[in-house]
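INFO  loader      accepted 1 record
INFO  loader      residues=220
INFO  predictor   begin
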Amino acid sequence: MDPTAVPEITDAILDEHGLTSAEYRRIVELIGRKPNWVELGVFSAMWSEHCSYKSSKPHLKTLPTEGSRVIQGPGENAGVVDIGDGLAAVFKIESHNHPSFIEPYQGAATGVGGILRDIFTMGARPIALLDSLRFGSPDHPKTRYLLNGVVSGIAGYGNCIGVPTVGGDVYFDDCYNGNILVNVFCLGLAKADRIFLGNASGVGNAVIYVGSKTGRDGIH
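INFO  predictor   done
INFO  writer      dumping tokens
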């Protein structure tokens, strides 16, 4: 397949990329032409629920985000609340659902790593993890494999970095047979006057990208 070729779009291709017909029309409108395979893959990834939270955002927007003790609300790596004595609680919850369904150990471990990263890049020290997990029926042939992998991945990453998982919940239901839910919460402590924000400016700043190659838990 030539990645620069422009595909003839069918419902099957859109389904494979997790896009609706309306979203495809919006892509054409944005770039002024039909996308090629690479561009279609990029939009598929960036407009996925995993990256954009497109179905979750309307619900998230109903939650309170302002208050006298709120130092940082939505828009940064994590939320920050003043807890007194010059300290701040820094916290965030993140989902890593489909990657954990595809590769349970690495998908769950990456979810923990991502949430820890968001906390310490704000200038906080992570002190605790929580997880909320949803699996398919206990009788489903894949459930035990997914459960063991996810739990091991969460524990393995947390233990390696020295942050304890202090609680969580697990539920089983048939509706999760086709895709599990893996949600991880991290709490950190920071000095209230030493919060680092995720922005930078200036010509010539270096960008350093560090990490392993994408595995089977990649999006597309």
